């Protein structure tokens, strides 16, 4: 049975349609990504799913519950790391964990939680004095304080330095191994690509694609780009290969676009002609390329 | 229950660490009591002074009058300033959303705030009584239970008003401005600064209908041995209901 079922969800703010006819299912144990630019309706969607906002249309079931009428029951079983939220400035880390644990039906061990999210040294630091990364770690820790079956992480690596991001990714993977389902809202392409089992691409309030990261790329048959350099003047024979779509050349640097196994074919042709470039490499299409192709524009960073 | 206790403990910690509330809620009423009692004195001769056909000091000395009246000011300061500033700030910074998303119900927050308000009022009143006694040889509360009940009813009424302000005012900054304005307006017309007998008739009537004047009488009467004031307690209870019901409804709906 699905952990989340969203069916024809619709939410408007006055005249602005924030979410328009969005449907998807989230399966137990997966990391499900919701990817889109700022203002695409990602946060509105997950806030409706968590029962923090009332949808204008459609149905939602989370762990068999209706978030609009059974929000209190639901919140005992889910964890939530909200975007743009805060804690009282003078509340200390350990006190925050203590407070949130007091409202959990099945609280986790508080010391273990602080250790897991590397917050032991900050135990008695006030929320206002924490760095962005420490705050984010505290919010994630608080999302796990009630042993949730499902967690929502909204822009979880925002404000983290690259190393902290990688560490956070590892922890998210670890959480999934523990059996918790994760819904990850992000506008970072690499995050979706590295972490998610499946990704829903949202743009302008609509669901434009739903697949695994690799599936998104493969489904669009986006070209790979093969690059190498050679002094050989005539390479017209390469363009005759069926998989090669285009070839451009600037002095010795050659760039070939093509679909499917273009790298292997180009490489074998080069070798057959006695050309063995040292810098032969390929750039495979990424989720970012897929996103561009799907939405027709670059994501705002 | 454990949630309520944890929230109450948290709110006490935060209150203690917030100098603004400590200064305003506890130091201001105490300072004003000292000042006013010093100005008007503690002479039995003033007790029966009459102006505009009214007993200026309700038949007691000015110092006795202000010791009891200033205890009521503590409750008003919490309700009109601490509570709306705190709660509007919580909303503005996303703390309410954070709580709500994590099974921390708004009612636990409200219960914690009310407990804090009551405990602070009781402690502040105790300090007030002792300081006034030591400095001006005033009467200690004659009926402590009556004073405590008046403070409880007052804390609920001003708590409800503060909660209503917090739901209507969107930011912590405007809560500070509006809270200060309301607080000082009430303070000036409720017999807590000039005695109500010296106010012009219109102002006296308006002031008399406002909650702080009711709370002043409700606290003064048992303190000075005049018995409980049922009418003032009932008026405060009415304020609690009229402000509290829409406030709770609005606060929950967010």
What is the class of the largest domain in chain A in the CATH system?
Alpha Beta
Structural class of chain A: alpha/beta
What percent of residues of chain A are in strands?
25-35%
Instruction: Tell me the radius of gyration of chain A.
Output: 23 Å
N to C succession of SSEs of chain A: EEEHEHEHHHEHEHEEHEHEEHEH
Instruction: Return the domain count of chain A.
Output: 2
Question: Sheet bearing the most strands of chain B, described?
Answer: 2 strands, antiparallel
Largest sheet of chain A: 6 strands, mixed
Low-confidence parts of chain A lasting 5 or more residues at pLDDT below 50? none
How much strand of chain B? under 5%
Order of helices and strands of chain B: HHEEHHHHHHHH
Q: In which range does the helix fraction of chain A lie?
A: 25-40%
| CATH superfamily placement of the largest domain in chain A | P-loop containing nucleotide triphosphate hydrolases
Strand order of the largest sheet of chain A: 5-6-7-3-8-9
The most extensive contact between chains is: A-B, 29 and 23 residues
- Second CATH tier, the architecture of the largest domain in chain A: 3-Layer(aba) Sandwich
């Amino acid at each position: 049975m699905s952990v989340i079922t969203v069916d024809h969800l619709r939410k408007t703010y006055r005249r602005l349609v924030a979410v328009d006819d969005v449907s998807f299912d989230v399966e137990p144990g997966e990391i499900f990504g919701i990817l889109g630019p700022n203002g695409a309706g990602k946060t509105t969607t997950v806030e409706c799913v968590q029962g923090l906002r009332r949808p204008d249309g459609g149905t939602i079931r989370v762990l068999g519950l209706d978030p609009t009428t059974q929000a209190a029951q639901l919140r005992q079983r889910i964890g939530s790391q909200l975007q743009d939220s805060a804690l009282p400035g003078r509340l200390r880390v350990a006190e925050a964990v203590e407070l949130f644990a007091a409202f959990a039906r099945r609280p986790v061990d508080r010391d273990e939680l602080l250790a897991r999210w590397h917050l032991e040294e900050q135990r008695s630091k006030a929320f206002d004095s924490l760095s962005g990364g420490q705050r984010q770690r505290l919010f994630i820790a608080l999302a796990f304080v009630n042993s949730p079956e499902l967690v929502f992480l909204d822009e979880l690596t925002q404000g983290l330095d690259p190393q902290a991001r990688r560490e956070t990714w590892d922890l998210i993977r670890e959480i999934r191994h523990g059996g918790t389902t994760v819904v990850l809202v992000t506008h970072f392409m690499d995050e979706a690509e590295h972490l998610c089992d499946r990704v829903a691409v949202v743009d302008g309030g609509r669901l434009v694609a739903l697949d695994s990261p690799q599936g998104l790329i493969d489904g669009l048959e986006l070209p790979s780009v093969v690059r190498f350099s050679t002094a050989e003047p005539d390479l017209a024979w390469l363009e005759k290969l069926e998989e090669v779509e285009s070839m451009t050349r600037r002095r010795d640097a050659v760039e070939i676009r093509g679909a499917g196994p273009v790298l292997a074919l180009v490489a074998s042709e080069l070798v057959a002609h006695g050309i063995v470039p040292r810098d032969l490499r390929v750039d495979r299409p990424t989720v970012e390329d897929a996103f561009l192709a799907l939405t027709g524009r670059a994501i705002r960073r | 229950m454990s949630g309520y206790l944890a929230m109450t403990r948290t709110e006490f910690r935060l209150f203690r660490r917030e100098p603004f509330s400590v200064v305003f809620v506890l130091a201001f009423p105490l300072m004003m009591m000292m000042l006013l009692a010093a100005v008007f004195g503690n002479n039995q001769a003033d007790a029966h002074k009459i102006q505009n056909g009214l007993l200026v000091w309700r038949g007691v000395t000015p110092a006795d009058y202000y010791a009891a009246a200033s205890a009521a000011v503590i409750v008003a300061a919490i309700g009109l300033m601490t509570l709306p500033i705190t709660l509007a700030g919580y909303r503005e910074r996303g703390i309410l959303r954070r709580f709500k998303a994590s099974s921390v119900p708004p009612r636990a927050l409200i219960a914690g705030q009310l407990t804090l308000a009551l405990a602070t009022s009781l402690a502040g009143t105790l300090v007030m009584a002792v300081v006034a006694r030591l400095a001006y040889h005033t009467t200690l509360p004659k009926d402590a239970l009556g004073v405590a009940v008046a403070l409880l009813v007052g804390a609920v009424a001003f708590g409800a008003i503060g909660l209503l302000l917090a739901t209507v005012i969107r930011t912590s900054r405007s809560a500070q401005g509006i809270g200060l304005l309301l607080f000082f307006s009430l303070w000036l017309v409720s017999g807590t600064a000039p005695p109500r007998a010296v106010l012009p008739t219109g102002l006296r009537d308006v002031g008399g209908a406002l909650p702080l004047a009711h709370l002043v009488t409700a606290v003064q009467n048992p303190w000075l041995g005049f018995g409980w004031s049922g009418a003032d307690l009932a008026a405060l209870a009415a304020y609690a209901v009229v402000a509290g019901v829409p406030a709770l409804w609005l606060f929950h709906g967010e």
